[in-house]
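Please fill in the sequence for the structure shown.

STRUCTURE ENCODING:
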């Protein structure tokens, strides 16, 4: 306890990063129900959406400029291309991405579509500051929708579990709980236990009502 009190906020923050490092990379618990959302590289698990989509977008932005794609495809068509590619997002709520390879391709296409959308916005005949605001507003909406759907899916999967949000005993958080113990940090995961029990009782009542 004395050691915890003597730690600075900086040290505590660094230890928290190390403790939650697996989740920071994968963005999903180490649970079989989330296997379709992650890819393994050695001992590390990465979130497919973030580690496929974002790099594709940034590399795509660079390559579209480097290869002068606008000399081959007029920038007026960039918007149409971006809409077609980004609209593959709707494959997820339609449950068409249950195969991991399909999901990887989908995230690649969304990232590539974002690259075309970026250059379409910056090619608009407006002052640079106006295009910057259009870019910021547009991508804030896109990222907001993607992140909302991610959180919704994450929580929805946990809710459907037999022990919903019981992260204090869930094997998907074993590594994190082990890290918290190793670094002598508070294992706040158990704070969800009461909430989990309430949800279990609520689900049982719903089943009885049917």
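FILLED IN BY: designer on duty
SEQUENCE:
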């Amino acid at each position: 306890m004395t050691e915890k009190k003597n730690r600075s906020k900086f040290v505590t923050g660094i230890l928290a990063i190390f403790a939650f490092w697996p989740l920071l990379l994968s963005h999903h618990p180490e649970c079989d129900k989330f296997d379709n959302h992650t890819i393994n590289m050695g001992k590390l698990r990465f979130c497919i959406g973030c580690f496929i989509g974002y790099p594709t977008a940034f590399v795509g932005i660079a390559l579209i400029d480097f290869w002068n794609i606008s000399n081959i495809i007029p920038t007026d068509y960039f918007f149409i291309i971006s809409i077609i590619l980004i609209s593959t997002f709707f494959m997820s709520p339609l449950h068409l991405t249950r195969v991991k390879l399909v999901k990887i391709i989908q995230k690649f296409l969304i990232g590539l579509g974002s690259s075309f959308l970026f250059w379409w916005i910056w090619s608009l005949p407006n002052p640079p500051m106006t295009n910057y605001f259009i870019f910021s507003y547009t991508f804030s909406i896109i990222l907001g929708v993607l992140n909302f759907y991610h959180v919704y899916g994450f929580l929805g999967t946990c809710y459907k579990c037999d022990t919903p949000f019981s992260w204090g005993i869930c094997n998907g958080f074993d590594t994190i709980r082990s890290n918290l113990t190793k670094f002598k940090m508070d294992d706040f995961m158990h704070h969800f236990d009461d909430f989990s029990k309430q949800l279990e009782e609520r689900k049982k009542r719903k089943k009885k009502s049917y």
